[in-house]
């Protein structure tokens, strides 16, 4: 089916009390893995591209690959810009065929963040494109974006309420203790803060930096209102682990397909596992 706005997918998730996986892609094999896993699980899915993915594969390739993959499945698929750096990049992705963009103004002062989001919304709304924003800072590294633990700031519930009232954004990423990249220890999420934010805002909540968060913690986050969960590092770990194993088994291998095929299969399995944890398996068809 054609690509759909992320807003449509998340509204259904809010009604059903589950979360939708937003899985980062970097190449054809990972796009195929995301769509294959979602199809097998009969689950709505969000394919997202970060700064690194756009630099590596190119906006046109990411869009074309995802659009083709979506047309070959019956499940709803949205194509989302992850951590957009500003207005110009968001507009470029909107014009390039993305059905959702995230503009990351979390480093800005509150009113500046609001102004940036509203500027993006002014372009996205007429095009039917969804917009995600972020309030609070999530530690770790997301391609070229780095936030230290010292500078991290959890999302203030009252600020989240004000922010949503002033923007009308379609989804809000919040900081409650997750981090981008690989964890050094087990993350401790502030569930009470999450519950309070969910009480105060009428906007789907997004959890970034979710790779490495225990399954039970993710399930609890979903129970308390999270509707979009971002996964990147777990996919990379599975993909590269299988690729390395294939190459070690046949060090003289000259056919990249023999390395990439098992890597793609491994990515499918980890994505299927996450979809089940999020509760979106079987939710694509009513």
Tell me about the biggest sheet?
Answer: 8 strands, parallel, barrel
Task: Tell me the quaternary state.
Answer: single chain
Strand residues, percent: 15-25%
Mean pLDDT: 92
CATH topology tier name = TIM Barrel
The computed structural class is alpha/beta
Label the overall shape.
globular
**Strand numbers in spatial order across the main sheet:** 1-2-3-4-5-8-10-11
Give the SSE order as H and E letters: HEHEHHEHEHEEEHEEHEHEHH
Got a strand count?
Answer: 11
CATH homologous superfamily label = Aldolase class I
CATH architecture title: Alpha-Beta Barrel
What percent of residues adopt helix (DSSP H or I)?
A: 40-55%
Provide the number of structural domains.
1
Q: Give the CATH class.
A: Alpha Beta
Low-confidence stretches: 144-151
> Cα-atom Rg, whole angstroms?
18 Å
N-end to C-end Cα span? 16 Å
Number of alpha- plus pi-helical segments: 11
Summarize the structure.
This protein has one domain: Aldolase class I (TIM Barrel), CATH 3.20.20. 50% of the residues lie in helices and 17% in strands. The chain has helices at 6-16, 28-41, 51-57, 59-71, 87-96, 110-127, 157-167, 191-200, 215-223, 233-249, 257-278, and strands spanning 20-24, 45-49, 77-84, 100-103, 130-135, 139-142, 145-147, 171-174, 179-180, 205-207, 226-231.
Give keywords.
alpha/beta; 286 residues; TIM Barrel; 8-stranded parallel β-barrel
Structure description:
This protein has 286 residues and is of the alpha/beta class. The protein has one domain: TIM Barrel (Alpha-Beta Barrel). It is built from eleven helices and eleven strands. The strands form two sheets. It has an eight-stranded parallel barrel with strand order 1-2-3-4-5-8-10-11, surrounded by ten helices. A three-stranded mixed beta sheet has the order 7-6-9, with no helix packed on it. The longest helix is centred in the C-terminal third of the chain and has 22 residues. It is globular and about 60 Å long.
């Amino acid at each position: 089916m054609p690509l759909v706005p992320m807003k449509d997918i998340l509204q259904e998730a809010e009604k059903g009390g589950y979360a939708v996986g937003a899985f980062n892609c970097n190449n054809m094999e990972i796009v195929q893995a995301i769509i294959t896993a979602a199809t097998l699980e009969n689950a709505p899915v969000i394919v997202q591209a970060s700064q690194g993915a756009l630099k590596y594969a190119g906006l046109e390739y990411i869009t074309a690959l995802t659009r083709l993959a979506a047309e070959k499945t019956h499940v709803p698929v949205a194509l989302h810009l992850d951590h957009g750096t500003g207005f110009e990049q968001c507009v470029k992705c909107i014009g390039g065929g993305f059905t959702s963009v995230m503009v990351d103004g979390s480093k800005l002062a509150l009113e500046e963040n609001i102004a940036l989001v509203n500027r993006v919304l002014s372009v996205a709304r007429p095009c039917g494109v969804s917009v995600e924003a972020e309030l609070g800072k999530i530690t770790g590294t997301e391609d070229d974006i780095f936030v230290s633990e010292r500078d991290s700031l959890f999302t203030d519930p009252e600020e989240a309420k004000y922010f949503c009232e002033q923007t009308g954004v379609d989804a809000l990423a919040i900081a409650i203790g997750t981090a981008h990249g690989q964890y050094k220890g087990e993350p401790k999420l502030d569930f009470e803060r999450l519950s309070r934010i969910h009480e105060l805002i009428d906007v789907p909540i997004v959890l970034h930096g979710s790779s490495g968060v225990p399954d039970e913690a993710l399930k609890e986050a979903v129970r308390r209102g999270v509707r979009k969960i971002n996964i990147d590092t777990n996919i990379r770990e599975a993909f590269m682990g299988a690729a390395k194993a294939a190459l070690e088994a046949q060090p003289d291998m000259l056919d990249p397909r023999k390395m990439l095929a098992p890597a793609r299969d491994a990515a499918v399995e980890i994505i299927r596992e996450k979809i089940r944890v999020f509760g979106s398996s079987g939710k694509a068809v009513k």
